[in-house]
Structures are given as structure tokens and as C-alpha cells.
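Table S2 (continued). Query chain:
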Amino acid sequence: MGQSKFNQEKYAEAEQLLKQAAALNIAGLDCRRVLAQTYLRQDKLQEAAAIYHELLRLTPNDVDVLVHQGLLLAQLGSTSEAKKHFQKALSIEPSHLKAAEYLLLVR
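Corresponding output:
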């Protein structure tokens, strides 16, 4: 249901549904990923960063999560931390173009 509201660009409704699902842990990691994206679409960067931090705790080698968290950290002004996330993503998947591109931008 939260994913459906997200796809309809009803972000406030999606946020509520996804937060409930995440709290009940009924939708797993996918729910948290969509919740993070929902926060991003609403310019709630700190909230999105917190979700990505939680995702990295659960899946520390998830390249896409590393890249998204790196982007958020860069937007929040933590470029040295962002760089570490992009570097880790590239150490796991050296051909990840976005990670390489973003790493160049934060140097």
C-alpha cells in the first residue's frame, strides 16, 4: 500500500503507511528503502539519512544503499563521510558508474 501511494506521488500518505509497516517489521528492507525515497521526495534529508544508516547496519555491503547514503551525506555537507561510502561501494562493485561519478564530484 505504501509503495502504491509512493508511485502515485502521494508522499505524505506513503510516509505514514511505510512508517507503520517498518515499525511492525512486516515489509522488511524494501519497505525501508521506499520510506527513505519518500523522505527524499519530501526534502526530509535527515530522516532519509537515518533510514539509510539503518539499512547499512542491516546490509553493510549493499552498494545502492552505500551510494544513496553517500549522496545524502554530501548534500548534508559531510563530504569526507560521503567519500568513504562511495569508496566502499566501489571496493565492492568496481564498475558501479554512479559511485565513481559521485566520488569524483566530492573530491
